[in-house]
Please model this.
Amino acid sequence: MGFNCGIVGLPNVGKSTLFNALTESAAADAANYPFCTIEPNTGRVAVPDPRLDKLAAIAQSAQILPTQLEFVDIAGLVRGASKGEGLGNQFLGNIREVDAIAHVLRCFDDDNITHVDDSIDPIRDAETIDTELMLADLDSLEKRMANLVKKARGNDKEAKAQLALMEKLYKGLSDGHAARAVPDLTVDERAILPTMQLLTAKPVLYVCNVDEGSAATGNALTERVAARAEEEGAAYVIVSAAIESEIIALDADEKAEFLADLGLEEAGLARLIRAGYGLLDLLTFFTVGPKEARAWTVRQGATAPNAAGVIHTDFERGFIRAETISYDDYIACNGEAGAKEAGKLRVEGSDYNVVDGDVFHFRFNV
Model:
C-alpha cells in the first residue's frame, strides 16, 4: 500500500532535484528555470526497514520485498495560482489527488540558482503557497455552500449538518487558518474533514532543503521552519537534495562512510519516510516464509481483515483468522516454529487491530 505524497513548492526550491534523488531516476528534469516540471512525475520507492532483513534472514526467504511509497513531483506554483495564474489550475488539481503534501522550502543560499522573489525566506514561501491553497478552498466552499442553502431551508438534516461545518471552515479559512487547523472543530467534524476534498485539510510535511554543511544540524532558516511547524502541529524534516543526489551511485558501505563524514546516520529518504509515516498514521506488518519476506502498509486502526485485504481482496472477503506473532517475539524465538513452541503465536479474529511489526499468516476461505 504505502502512501501518495505530492512534492510541492515554489519554482527553484529543489523539488525536482529531491524527487530525482529519492526515486533514483531522471524522470523529472531538474533545471534552473520555473516550470521545468510540467506534468507531475510519479516515482515509487522502496521503504527501507531493517526489520524486514532480519525476518528474512531467520526464515531464509528467497526474496525480500519491501513496501513502497509514491512521490509525485508537482509543477512549481506562483502567486495567483488559485485564479489560474501560471500553471495554477493544474497545480491545484494535482494536489487534490495526493494523500499528503511534502512542502519543499529552500533553506540555502546559492547565487547561481535564482529565486522567484529574489531573496531566501522559507516562511514567506510557505505562506505564499498556503495563501493560494486557502483561496482555492474558500472558492470551493462558496460554490458548495450555495448549493446546500436550498436543501437546508427545506429541513434536509444532512444538508444542514454539512452547511454548518462548511460555514465553520469558511470562517476559519477567512481568518487565516488552514482547514486542518481550524479551531473549535468537534471530533466528529475532524473525522469528516478528509472527505471534503479541501487542499488545506491535507497533512503537511515541511521539507527543509539545505546545503551539505547544514544537513546534520540545520541552520537559522530551518529553525524558523521548525518553529512554524510546531505552531501548526505539522511535521518537518531537514534534507539536502544535493547530498541525496551524490549518494545515488554509491554502494552501501560507501554511502555509510560518506554520510558519517557529514555527521549523518542515515540518508534523507529514511527521514522522509519516518516523518511521512507519522504524518499519515501508517503501520507496517509482515508476511514471512521461505519464498519471500514482505512488508505491507496499513493505516492506524486497520483490523486484521483490512490487512489481509491489502494482500488480496479474497483474503479479506473470506477472512477466518490471523495467526499473529509480534516482531520482537519472532526475533527472540528465532522464527515461527520457536514462537509456536514458546506460546507466542496468537490467533486473532476480525476485531483485532494491527500493531506495527505484526507478522501475520492469514487463514481464509472463499
About this structure: Confidence is low (pLDDT under 50) at residues 25-38.
